[in-house]
Amino acid sequence: MFARMKHLSFASDLRLSPVESSLTADYRIPGREPRTETFSFGARLLHEDTDTAKSDSASLIFQQLLKGGAWNQARFVEFLHERSVVAGRETTANLLMPGIDFDRTVADDVLRTYRGYRANVRLQGAYEGIVSTATLLQLRAGAKGIRRLGRKGGRLTARLDAGATIGDSIGDLPASLRFFAGGDNSVRGYRYESLGPVDDTGQVEGGRHLLTGSLEYEHPVFRDHDDWWAGAFVDAGNAFDTDRIHLKVGYGVGVRWYSPVGRLRFDLAFPEDTSRDSWRIHFGLGADL
């Protein structure tokens, strides 16, 4: 839903799925230079239910969005109320988090990229003495690059995601601020958010830090057009608490089809650790970057 009146705008979004359901609403006001500056007042309700964690949260967010330079910026203050259950332990958190977000995308074609990259960095924090129930400083960063090898050749894609948290015990943090690995855009071959540090009973409780990466090669199936591609990939990474990381590796093959509504990805992935899964199917739909 989208409405506009006197340069003000309102947007809302509803998403429903067995794993994650959300309702968001944003009220946007143009700044002095509407093409490069926008202010946003937003609210979000989120319910998440995975094999690892269950959580319900409500957020109020004020943002200043800046565009036009080499990087887009979002300066924000978020108030988060979240109740979550991870590894059988319930946590209720109230966090007032100021932060800043940078992102940049460069591509020859956003929907069908043969050469380009994207990068994003997000820094946010909270202090227990100011409204919040925990003290933390968290950094999240990600990058992805694509390069085609010649006009009719294959394509290489590399991805790296990292995160680090400084602050209180992991048990004081809600599920959304803990790091997990596994799933479509992480380490394929493992269930969504099923990787990370475990408690004394062997249940995944999430980590302070994250490091995952992927390398993928795709090749067009037909010489005359580029709608169908076959690919092979290897993913690696994990969430962790200390300076030592136990990498989990997944690998597999897949098919990509550039449909009228975006790229459709079908992957058959195998985990190196077969103690819980022997193989998994992953789907994806959207732009390359």
> What is the alpha-carbon Rg in Å?
20 Å
Pattern of helices and strands? EEEEEEEEEEEEEEE
CATH fold title: Porin
What is the count of helical runs? 0
Low-confidence stretches: 1-5
Structure explained in plain terms:
With 289 residues, the chain is mainly beta. The protein has a single domain, classed as Porin (Beta Barrel), CATH 2.40.160.50. The chain is built from no helices and 15 strands. It has a 15-stranded antiparallel beta sheet with strand order 1-2-3-4-5-6-7-8-9-10-11-12-13-14-15, with no helix packed on it. Strand 5 (53-66) and strand 6 (72-86) form a beta hairpin. It is globular and about 60 Å long.
SSE order and pairing:
Layout: E1 2-5, E2 8-15, E3 20-30, E4 37-49, E5 53-66, E6 72-86, E7 89-107, E8 115-126, E9 136-148, E10 155-167, E11 209-220, E12 228-240, E13 248-259, E14 262-271, E15 280-286
Task: For the structure shown, list the relevant keywords.
disordered N terminus; Porin; 15-stranded antiparallel beta sheet; mainly beta; 0% helix
What is this structure, in a nutshell?
The protein has no helices and 15 strands. By secondary structure, the chain is an all-beta fold. The chain has a single domain, classed as Porin (Beta Barrel).
